[in-house]
Amino acid sequence: MKPTTLGELRATAWAALAGRSVKAELRDNLMRKLRDRTPIFPGIRGYDESVIPQIVNAILSRHNFILLGLRGQAKTRLLRQLSDLLDEEIPVVEGAELHDDPFAPVSVEGREIVERCGDSTPIAWLPREARYIEKLATPDVTVADIVGDIDPIKAAKLGTRLGDERSVHYGLLPRANRGLFAMNELPDLSGKVQVALFNVMQEGDVQIKGHPIRLPLDIMLVFSANPEDYTARGKIITPLKDRIGSEIRTHYPPTVEEGMAITRQEAWLERGGEVRLPGFVSEMIEEVAFQARDDARVDKHSGVSQRLPISLMEAVVSNAERRALELEESPAYVRASDLYAGLAAVTGKLELEYEGELKGGEAVARDLVRRAVGQVFARRAGQVDTGEVIEYFDADNTLRLPDHVATGALVQVFEAVPGLLDAARELAEGTSAADLAVAAEFVLEGLYARKLVARSEERGFTGVQPESAEAAQAGPRRRWN
Known about the structure:
Helicase, Ruva Protein, domain 3, single chain, five-stranded parallel sheet, alpha/beta, 3 domains
C-alpha cells in the first residue's frame, strides 16, 4: 500500500531519493533500459544509428536539448515518448499547486502545508503522464502564459503585497515542476518570452514581472524547431541557443525500404475487410515522397513530410476498397492506377516553388506519381522482356481498360497484348488471375511512366508518337531489358 503521509513516506525507499532531480531520474531510468536492452523509443524507425544515440547521450549528460528537423520527422513523437523514462509515479504534497516534493517543497503553499502538518502532511501520487507538458510556440504566446503573472485580485484577497509569491498566477513552466516541459517550434516565440526562459535553464529559477520572486524549479526543457528558422532566419536569440545543451538533427528515412516500413506502420490499413496490397504498389507510394524531396519545383526548406506517403497509402487503399464494393469483389486488390486516384493526398502536402506554382499543384503531383511508377518499374522490371508489348503498341494498336470489370476479369483484356501476361507473371506476387492482372497493369503503367508507350483518355494505352521527322526515321523502340 502506498504511503499517504509524509511520515509513512520517510520509512520507504523514497527517503533516499529526496532531492533527486528530474534529469537524474531520466538518466537512472534510461541506464536501466540500456542495461536491460529494452527499446527506448518503440515505434520510431530509421533513427537507431543517428538520432536516438544522440538523444541518449543528451539525457545521460543531463542536457536540455533541441530537435532540429523539417516537418514530418517524428520530432513531437520523440519528445512525448520521453515521459516513458520518468518513474511511473512520484509523491507530491497534496493540495500544493506546483507538484512539490514532500521532502523539499518549493512553493510557499507547499512549505506552509509541510510546516503546519509535519509528518502528517498528506501525500498524493502523480503519474508520469501528468508530468509532461507541451506547448506549441506561436507569436502571441506571452511571458505570463509560460512563466506566470502577478494577480492583483489574488493579492487583494490574501492581503499580501504584489511581490509576494502567494499573489502569483503560475504559467505552464512552474506547473511543469518535477517534470518535462516541451516547446514545439521554438523560433516562433517572441524574443521577450525566450529571455524569460534563461534563468530556468541556467540558474534553475524564475522571475515574474521584475518582482523578487524566485522558484528553484526542477524541470527538463526540450524543444523542437525547423532548422531554417533556427539558423538562417536567426529567430532563436543567441543567449538561449547557448543554454541548450545538445542540438540534435532529425531526418527523413534514408532508404525507400525504411520509408515503406514507417508508412505501413503508421497508415490505417485495418479496414475490416481483406485488402491485397502488392509490394511494388507500396514501393511506388513511398517513391512519390522521395521524388518530391528531390524535385526542384518543391520547396526544400519546407520539406516533404512522411505524412505524404502515409496519407497517399490510405487514399490508394480506399480507392481499391471503393472499387471492390462497387464490383462486389473480395478481396480488394490495390492497383498501380490507384495512385493517380490518390492525388488529393499529395497536393496539400507540397509547398511549391515559383516554377511549381506556375504548373499547378495537381500537375506537379501527377508528374511525381508518374516518375515514382517509372522508378520502381526500372528497379523491379529491369530484366523483364517487354519488347513484344512495346512493338504491339508501336504497330498502332490500342488498349483501353474497361471501368467496371472485376480485377481478375482484366486478364482476358490483357491477353490481347502479346507478351504482356508473360511479363506480368515475372512480377506477380500471387497465383490468382487478379494477382496476374494487377501485375500486368503495373507493366503498362511502368512502360507509360518510362515513355515507352503512351496513354490518352480517349484511346487508352497507345504507341508513342514520334515528335519529329528525325524521331520517325529512328524507328520504333524495341525492348526494355
